Every structure is written in structure tokens, then in C-alpha cells.
Amino acid sequence: xxxxxxxxxxxxxxxxxxxxxxxxxxxxxxxxxxxxxxxxxxxxxxxxxxxxxxxxxxxxxxxxxxxxxxxxxxxxxxxxxxxxxxxxxxxxxxxxxxxxxxxxxxxxxxxxxxxxxxxxxxxxxxxxxxxxxxxxxxxxxxxxxxxxxxxxxxxxxxxxxxxxxxxxxxxxxxxxxxxxxxxxxxxxxxxxxxxxxxxxxxxxxxxxxxxxxxxxxxxxxxxxxxxxxxxxxxxxxxxxxxxxxxxxxxxxxxxxxxxxxxxxxxxxxxxxxxxxxxxxxxxxxxxxxxxxxxxxxxxxxxxxxxxxxxxxxxxxxxxxxxxxxxxxxxxxxxxxxxxxxxxxxxxxxxxxxxxxxxxxxxxxxxxxxxxxxxxxxxxxxxxx
Amino acid sequence: xxxxxxxxxxxxxxxxxxxxxxxxxxxxxxxxxxxxxxxxxxxxxxxxxxxxxxxxxxxxxxxxxxxxxxxxxxxxxxxxxxxxxxxxxxxxxxxxxxxxxxxxxxxxxxxxxxxxxxxxxxxxxxxxxxxxxxxxxxxxxxxxxxxxxxxxxxxxxxxxxxxxxxxxxxxxxxxxxxxxxxxxxxxxxxxxxxxxxxxxxxxxxxxxxxxxxxxxxxxxxxxxxxxxxxxxxxxxxxxxxxxxxxxxxxxxxxxxxxxxxxxxxxxxxxxxxxxxxxxxxxxxxxxxxxxxxxxxxxxxxxxxxx
Lengths: 384, 306
Prior knowledge:
The complex is a heterodimer.
Chain A: H1 28-43, H2 46-76, H3 85-108, H4 113-118, H5 121-125, H6 131-162, H7 168-195, H8 199-223, H9 225-228, E1 229-239, E2 253-263, H10 276-283, H11 293-296, H12 299-312, E3 318-319, E4 325-326, E5 329-330, H13 348-369
Parallel strand pairs in A: 1-3
Antiparallel strand pairs in A: 1-2, 4-5
Helix pairs in contact in A: 1-6, 2-3, 2-6, 3-6, 3-7, 3-8, 6-7, 6-13, 7-8, 7-10, 7-13, 10-12, 10-13
Chain B: E1 7-16, E2 19-29, E3 34-38, H1 45-52, E4 60-65, H2 74-80, E5 81-84, H3 96-106, H4 111-124, H5 140-152, E6 158-162, H6 170-185, E7 189-194, H7 197-201, E8 206-211, E9 214-220, E10 227-234, H8 237-246, E11 251-253, E12 260-265, H9 266-279, E13 284-289, H10 293-305
Parallel strand pairs in B: 3-7, 3-8, 5-6, 6-7
Antiparallel strand pairs in B: 1-2, 1-4, 8-9, 10-12, 10-13, 11-12
Helix pairs in contact in B: 3-4, 4-5
């Protein structure tokens, strides 16, 4: 602080009126003042350091255990040098995200109502900081605190990558998406902390919201399967009628029409999109062959293909005939049905967009609540 | 007084749901003077100060702080107002110096000037020795002094002090009084709310009395023409009362002491009474105003309300 010589608009002791600044005025100086104030208080609390150490140990333990388990498994099969990195990587990423979703609400959901209860919010509001500077400064501080947890897990992500099987570019997208998701959760927590007077209340509401997009929406997606499944007449490239499978000649394939249950997941895929795990998984570069997914055990890639197939949904004609193997030869290798391509069916931009909107809503709500002079007070709160 | 200086509030009202915290307050506080805001607990003092500080929007009425309307020109009004709240919350893990440099930064003062200002203010409120201690080790009175320093960081034209003396030791009270008088002498407008009237007596020039959210009276403390009660004691109370019966102003016996209470107008009347008593051979041991001006005015108002 003391070496800082940045020139900012200085106080006007001679009574010159400084320019009017509104609720949404932003300055780097104001943002930094609030963020530094918040971070100083956080850094000095021992609780936070303990949490960071516990986090480091937990992620480390999980990485060690999964790595050990898969080393033993692959060691059991002599000659197998299958890379198990994908499995370990996806487990570590999932675990980091899971813990992050638990920690981030705790970091931000007391930022405004906690200060209000301690009587320190109004002392900031009367200064020349704009409400937007106070809110975004607090958001920056809680986000930086959340990112410290993410940084503490990066060594383990890199370690898992060394195991092989995962594109190095995936590390970049994964860390970026994890960071954005933590920021969104911080912003949601901040919004609730401006509405609710008790810090425990805002924490619960934040957890419920995160739980809603992470668990409730996918469950809804599952429950809607019967509603989105319809019986339709579908053209099927099928085995010729009367073929018994005991003959030595390969079956002839032909177009038939069958009454089939078709699941239109393309109508409800968006319920999966806001899920943070989906966003993180889908944003990684699409790699490998979908046929080998189950063998590689990269659960992030499985999730990625899963949501992309869900978005693609019903593709029309089906192929029930091609691909059978008889006497070592694949029969009917050429199918008139186009294989499903999922590479361009991106899900994460929609999910990320929705989540960012949620976060932005939290910020807007918080800024409006900090507007001075206050016209209405939330139930059970004092100004100072 | 310039038309745009000081604090002017007219017909200010604010309610919280069904509670009319401030029902109708008129208040004028002039630059260069200390104005006392006096009222019983729950009379709306703190709510009024929140509105003057630009934190709370009045339901009705107009406010001008150094010429700026805190509702429409909130930023300008805030830049000229220093507010010291009654409930003093502080950033506990920060040191006293950091609290002040943070507030200076929040008032958009650059870092070097903020640091210099912090040292100056710590000196002013006698906290230099504790400057680098975390704020949570400060006592209540020390926190109160830090709160006062915080309100002064940006050298405001208008100071709003909500119960500034609560928790202060006698030495600090004297310091507070001297400081407040000095700030007023520099031309600042100072509004002090309190219900400790004796301390306001020595500090304030004007007084505004509010009760149940309304302005009930406005008066000048230094107003010498107003009759007030004086307490008179003599070595021989009987002789004293006999003398007063014979030739003197109306009096009443002090309910819980040996003296009598006389209502006199101005210091000259008191001097005349003392001279006549001595000339008559009465041994007067003391003659002094009974209670403060504000206390008497306040009690008189209470009396009227009953």
C-alpha cells in the first residue's frame, strides 16, 4: 500500500465539488480498495489458512488413492500399458469441482449481511465508493479466495495429466471453467447475502441454488424421459424378414418401417447444460473415439459425449442391420444411415451462459440493495 | 450564514412499516456552530442522522447538506459529510492505522496523502501508540475515538456525531469537547446527538429538541435572556429563607438538599441577588446555576408534555 503512488482524484478540502458518481460508477481504485480490505481480513483469519491446508491434503489424498488403485489394477494385467491418466484426471477434476462448490458459497454468502450485522457496511456506504465498487470488490475478493483453493489443486491435476491419456489443452479449459464456475457461485452467494439478513440463511439459499442446477435439473431431465418418449413410425435399415440367423449366407438388409419408442432428449437437454460438471466436461477438447470411451474410463469424456448425444437427440432413420460380424467378416459394411456426429453439438456455451446470467443477477441484486439513500430496508435489517 | 452552508432539514419524515421513527423534524445547523440534537431514547435521533448522512431516504421533506440534497445529489452530499455512527462496527483484524488508510482510500484520497492523514488523525485522537495494534484490542472508548478520526478523514464540512461521548473516560470527554469546539471554530457545521446533557452544555451553541420523531423546541444555549434556576445555599438556611421572604425573588426549597432554588434571568440578576444577600449579613456559601441550561429546558419540555 505505502509504495503505491497511483494518482487518483484527491479529496477536495477547499470545497470544490467532485463529479457526481452514480450507483454503477466503477473505478480501478475503488475496486481495489474494497478487494484489498476484504482480502486483508480473510488472510488474517487462521480459519481460512486451515481450510486451505485441509483442502490441499484432501485433494492430494484422493489423487494418491486413485493413482495407487489404478496402478495396481493395470499392474494385474501383464503387458497392459493402457494409460490410466484419463480416469485419475476425471476423478480429481470432479472432486475439485465438488469441493469447490461446497467452499465457494461459504466464502461469499456472508460478505454483505455479515458486514451489515457487524456494523461495517454503512461505514463503506457513506464513503465515496459506489455500490457497484463495493459489490464487485467483494466479489473479486471472494473469487480470489476461491481461486486460491483451485491453485492449490493444480499440482494434482498436472500429476494426473502426466499419467497420460488426456490432451494437455484439456488442463487449460478445465481450469478456466472451474475458475468461472467458482466465480458464478461466489456471485450467487453475494446476491443472497444482500437479500437475506442472516448469514446462515444466505448460505443455505446459495447451497440450494447450486444444488438445484447440479442435481435437481438433471433429476428433472431423468424424470421427463417418459414424457419426452413417443411411439413413432421410424424407417429402419433392418434384416430381411424371415432370416433365421442359422443360415450361412449373410442377411440382406432392407428398409422397413417399425413402431418404435423414440426418446426426444433434444427437447430437454438444456436441463443438463447449467450443471457445473457438464460445463467443465463439455468445454474440454473432444478427443478420442467414442467407441473406446468406456475402456479409457475418462468420466469427463463420457459425460461430454453423453450430453452431446442428448442434445443431438432423435436423428431419424435407424440402422439395425449393419455391423454384424460373421466368420470374421463384417457384413453389410456400408450403411445408408448416417452415423451420429456430435462434434458440433456444443452444450457448454449454453450452460456457461446461463450460469453467468445467474451470477450477473446476483451482482445486480446486490448493487441495488446497496444503493444509497436506501428507500426500503429488508425485513429485520438495520442500516447501521 | 450563507444560504447553502450547514444543515437544513424541513418537514423530514421517515417510517419503518407502521413505526413513524421520524414524524416531522425541522432542523437548522449553522456553519461554525455546534448544534446539539437532544431527545429521549427512541425519539428518532439516529434515524434522522442516517437521513442526514445520505444513507436513508426520507419519506417526505427536504434536506440540504452544505447545499447538496442527499437524495438527488447523494455523492456530493456524502463527500462533504463526516458521519460517526452510534454503534461502532470496525474491521477487527485491521490495525487502527489501516482502518484510517482504508477509509482514506474509500474517499478517493491517494495512498501517500491517506497515510499522512491517518498519522495526523491518530495523533489528534491520542491513538498513536496503538496505531499498529489490531482494532479488536482497542477498548470501547478507544474505538469511539477511532470512529471520530474515521469521520474526519476527508476533512468534511459537516460532521454528524451520534452519541460521540458514550464510553469515553473523563479525559477523553474533555478532549472531545476541545476538538469539537476547534472544528466549529474552523467553520465546520457540527451536529452532536446525545442524551447526556451536561456534556452538551459545554459543547453546544444551539440545541434542537426532538421527541417522538418531532422537533419540539429549538433554542440557543448561550441565550442569556432566558430565565433559569440557580441554586443558593447559606450557612444558616433559616436566615436565608427569611431574607428571601422579606425581599427577594420567588424561591422554592430544594427537595433533596439544604439550598433553595431561585429563578433568575441573566448573570447580572444573580450578581445583584448575591450582593443584596451579603449586604443583609447573610453568609452565602454558594450560588450557581442548578443543572445545565439544556437539562432545564429538556425537563421543562418533559413537564409540558405530561
